[in-house]
């Protein structure tokens, strides 16, 4: 009996980011993308969030390689964590591989098997034959994947849009999608990010006119904030700036890294004499300066954020024009709005997406998604790369385009979609979810720790310190009350004094209780302190009883 094809999303469904999809047949597995997501406001102190890869650990003997669609963080960011566990080949286009290599170097991983491919190339991994198909996105080197399996071809679009006039002059290879559609596509996994938007996504070339307009009117310095990976956007800004007699200064760590890589590989064409370091800006007139920086999402360590709050060498001044060439990613709206307000306060003229066409998406809108469905004519359809509403609406769109309802699958992370020639269904799920990265710790921070961090951030900490004689339990000192983030102790002397009196009888009871009951007394001190402070302040600080046992003197 033939094996069933399994498609298992380990990330990228029900969320924007953390894209990772397992394709499994018999004794072979390939993984499409290996991304991360940045923490939301509730994940206090967390650096990154990556997919739970325990299913791959369990099936490591089947794993044949990672297939990467493009070089954005939500598609490559978890590779350093994956490749420490899974020493398998990674495949991507030239820029994608260069960005992965740079990321691995930062993590001191030097033995990765990185393989560069070009659109049109075909490779074999186990029972799979994979063709890389040229697509358009907001980063160079984006590809879709045609994965031929023993029971049919699976098309994974990656992130894409249909741009007939791309900056690099290489439009999406529509013919290859049509080729596979004419032969018969078993399943289509398609980008759902912009399914809510009607019509077509604008060409990247369209916003060039906007830059021309604002550079024409700018009297002082021009600062443009964009995604560091949007090389086409950076090329357009640089071209317009140079045409207006300006020099280019790049700011922001990721901007400098990616621009350096893109220039080295030939994806960016900017004359070296037109690129200047920060120190040289002092010798130039304001009307000769264009700064291209990170910070379009209001990130607190980004170049634009620090310029806006005067913690950068190049601070925003009256007369500057700031163009934020991006739209806010869901969840970042407050941060972006805060930076825009700070820029206006410093006297800058700020241009952002609500005022002008300074950004176009890298994702397909509704009509382009219909085109993809028409070209490939899949038997089964699995929407990916989107929050749940995006997946649901994309599934409805596929049904409008002729895909049977029972052949569309809106999945959750870890769901197992099993396909045969004729039928498919969700048959269960595998261990999956998110691992939080905090410093060097991976997955050691869970909901309990996050809950404690949230409590500390909201109501602070109170330590109740008691010194006891170790042998007898006699109270030697205290209780001392120490507040951090709860009340200012110098202005709350009466409250602290009353708190001491409230817990002192409990502290004295250690002397009359056996050692086995001390843990219970400690809990009683915690409860009594919590009740006292809530009654007095209506706040719930974290209570930390600290018992110091002093050994007997000899």
Summary?
The chain is an alpha/beta fold and 554 residues long. The protein has helices at 54-58, 73-76, 79-85, 94-106, 174-183, 208-217, 231-243, 253-265, 303-308, 333-345, 366-376, 388-400, 447-459, 493-508, 518-537, and strands at residues 5-11, 20-25, 28-32, 48-51, 63-67, 90-92, 114-116, 122-125, 128-134, 143-149, 152-156, 185-191, 222-225, 247-251, 289-293, 321-324, 349-351, 378-384, 415-419, 424-429, 434-438, 441-442, 461-469, 475-484, 542-550.
Q: How would you explain this protein's 3D organization?
A:
- The model has no long low-confidence stretch (mean pLDDT 88).
- The chain is an alpha/beta fold and 554 residues long.
- The longest helix is centred in the C-terminal third of the chain and has 20 residues, at 518-537.
- The protein starts with a strand and ends with a strand.
- Helices cover 30% and strands 25% of the residues.
- It is built from 15 helices and 25 strands.
- It has an eight-stranded mixed β-sheet. It has a six-stranded mixed β-sheet with strand order 8-9-10-11-12-18.
- The protein has helices spanning 54-58, 73-76, 79-85, 94-106, 174-183, 208-217, 231-243, 253-265, 303-308, 333-345, 366-376, 388-400, 447-459, 493-508, 518-537, and strands at 5-11, 20-25, 28-32, 48-51, 63-67, 90-92, 114-116, 122-125, 128-134, 143-149, 152-156, 185-191, 222-225, 247-251, 289-293, 321-324, 349-351, 378-384, 415-419, 424-429, 434-438, 441-442, 461-469, 475-484, 542-550.
């Amino acid at each position: 009996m033939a094996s069933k094809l399994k498609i298992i999303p380990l990330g990228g469904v029900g969320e924007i980011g953390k894209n990772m999809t397992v394709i499994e047949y018999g004794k072979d597995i390939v993984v499409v993308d290996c991304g991360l997501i940045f923490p939301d406001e509730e994940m206090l102190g967390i650096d990154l969030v990556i997919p739970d890869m325990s299913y791959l650990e369990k099936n490591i003997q089947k794993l044949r390689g990672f297939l990467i669609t493009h070089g954005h963080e939500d598609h490559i960011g978890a590779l350093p964590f994956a490749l420490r566990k899974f020493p398998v080949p990674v495949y991507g286009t030239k820029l994608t591989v260069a960005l992965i290599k740079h990321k691995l170097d930062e993590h001191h991983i030097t033995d990765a098997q990185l393989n560069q491919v070009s659109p049109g190339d075909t490779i074999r991994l186990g029972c799979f034959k994979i063709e890389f198909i040229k697509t358009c996105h907001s980063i160079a080197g984006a590809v879709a994947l045609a994965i031929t399996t023993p029971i049919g071809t699976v098309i994974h679009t990656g992130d894409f849009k249909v741009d007939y006039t791309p900056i690099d002059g290489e439009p999406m290879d529509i013919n290859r999608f049509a080729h596979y559609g004419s032969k018969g596509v078993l399943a289509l996994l398609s980008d759902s990010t912009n399914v809510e938007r009607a019509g077509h996504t604008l060409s990247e070339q369209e916003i060039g006119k906007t830059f021309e307009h604002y550079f024409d009117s700018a009297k002082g310095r021009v600062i443009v904030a964009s995604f560091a990976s949007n090389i086409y956007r950076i090329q357009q800004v640089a071209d317009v700036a140079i045409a207006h007699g300006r020099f280019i200064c790049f700011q922001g760590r990721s901007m400098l890294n990616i621009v350096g890589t893109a220039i080295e590989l030939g994806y960016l064409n900017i004359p070296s004499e037109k690129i200047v370091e920060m120190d040289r800006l002092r010798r130039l007139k304001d009307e000769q300066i264009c700064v291209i920086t990170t910070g379009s999402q209001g990130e607190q360590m980004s170049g634009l954020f620090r310029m806006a709050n005067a913690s950068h060498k190049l601070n925003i001044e009256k007369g500057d024009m700031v163009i934020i060439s991006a739209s806010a990613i869901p969840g970042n709206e407050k941060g972006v709005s805060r930076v825009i307000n700070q820029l206006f306060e410093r006297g800058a003229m700020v241009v952002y997406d609500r005022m002008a066409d300074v950004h176009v998406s890298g994702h397909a809108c509704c009509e382009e998604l219909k085109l993809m469905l028409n070209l490939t004519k899949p038997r089964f359809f699995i929407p990916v790369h989107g929050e749940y509403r995006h997946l649901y609406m994309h599934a409805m769109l596929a049904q409008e385009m002729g895909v049977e309802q029972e052949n569309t699958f809106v999945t959750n992370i870890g769901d197992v979609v099993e396909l045969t020639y004729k039928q498919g269904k969700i048959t269960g799920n595998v261990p999956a979810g998110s691992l939080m990265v905090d410093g060097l710790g991976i997955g050691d921070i869970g909901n309990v720790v996050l809950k404690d961090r949230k409590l500390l951030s909201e109501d602070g900490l109170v330590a109740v310190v008691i010194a006891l004689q170790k042998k007898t339990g006699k109270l030697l000192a205290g209780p001392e009350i120490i507040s951090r983030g709860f009340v200012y102790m110098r202005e709350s002397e009466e409250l602290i004094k009353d708190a001491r009196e409230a817990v002192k009888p409990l502290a004295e009871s250690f002397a009359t209780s056996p050692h086995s009951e001390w843990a219970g007394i400690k809990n009683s001190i915690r409860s009594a302190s919590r009740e006292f402070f809530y009654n007095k302040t209506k706040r719930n600080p974290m209570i930390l009883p600290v018992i110091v046992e002093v050994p007997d003197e000899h």
